[in-house]
Amino acid sequence: MTVSTNRPLSPFMTYRWTLTMAMSFVHRATGVALYVGTLLMAWWLIAAASGPAAYGAIQGFTASWIGRLILLGYTWALLHHMLGGLRHFVWDLGYGFGAAEREWITRATLIGSITLTVVIWVIAYAAGGAR
Amino acid sequence: MSQGSGSMRTPIGRVRGLGAAHSGTKDFFRQRLTALAMLLLFIPALVVVMMLLGRNHAAAVQILGSPLVAVIMILFIIASAWHMKLGMQVVIEDYVHDEKLKLAAIIANTFFSAAVGLASIYAIIKLSSGV
Fold first, then answer.
1. Which domains does chain B have, with CATH numbers?
2. Which of A41, A125, B37, B121 could form a disulfide with B79 if both were Cys (CB 3.0 to 4.6 A apart)?
3. Mean pLDDT for all residues in chain A
């Protein structure tokens, strides 16, 4: 029995890693990261409600290099997930599905999230450092 | 699902109330509703965080306990706790295939989201009523 060489391949075999696929995964990954990150928000608010000692502890943590790194990651994850959500709103409404459109809108969320993270941290250091 | 050609169910009957969540598109809509709420609350919540940077406990209590800030924070917490519950449920439904384990994970997710949300709201209310 001869096997035809041009018969359709399974989608699994034709998949290649595209930007929209990668960003779809990143949207989910940032969502899960933010889920865990809410523990930090709850800790911060409960610490404020508990008293100066508890609040000092979380301030100490957020001032440490690991704390700053987590907060930087949290900022980016939040912004990326938010811009990714905006992109999904556009798609939900039925726009932006063209080959060129879906590529640039996906690129824009990535570039936008990184840019906004830098802008917010510059403002944060200017505002926080001035006190 | 096995729907034979002799089924008495109409197509709309098959569609209604089905899907992995057994609740149709209700969760899909609420996911986007809470996303929109957070989108609108993002700038106010960011301003609150910026106001708190570099301030001590006494100042943080005063800011978080002021009515406008407290309302912004509570709305943001409700939207985020609900949104993350729905989001994580989709992740669980996609990746956990064992029915019992899936049910356990969905219950755990609901408890976690409710606990984080309510603990944060409690902290805000406590700060608002003067610690």
1. 11-128 (1.20.1300)
2. B37
3. 90
Q: How far is A2 from chain B (nearest CA, A)?
A: 36
Query: How many CB atoms are located within 10 Å of the residue B58 CB?
Result: 10
Q: How far is A54 from chain B (nearest CA, A)?
A: 9
More confident residue, A31 or A4: A31
pLDDT digits (tens, 9 = 90+) for A54-102: 999 999 999 999 999 999 999 999 999 999 999 999 999 999 888 889 9
Residue A59 lies in a domain: yes
Which residue in B50, B120, B131 is closest to A42 by CB distance? Answer: B120
> Which CATH number characterizes residue A49's domain?
1.20.1300.10
Please indicate, yes or no, if residue A1 is contained in any of the structural domains. no
The angle formed by the CA atoms of residues B53, B122 and A64, to the nearest 5 degrees, is 30
Answer whether B80 touches A (CB < 8 Å): yes
Q: Is B127 buried (19+), middle (13-18) or exposed (0-12) by CB count in 10 A?
A: buried
Task: Annotate A19-42 with b (16+ C-beta within 10 A) or e (fewer).
Answer: eeeebeebbbebbebbbebbebbb
Q: How many domains does chain A have?
A: 1
Q: Which residue among A49, A85, A124 places its CB closest to the CB of B50?
A: A124
Strand residue runs (E) in A31-131 = none
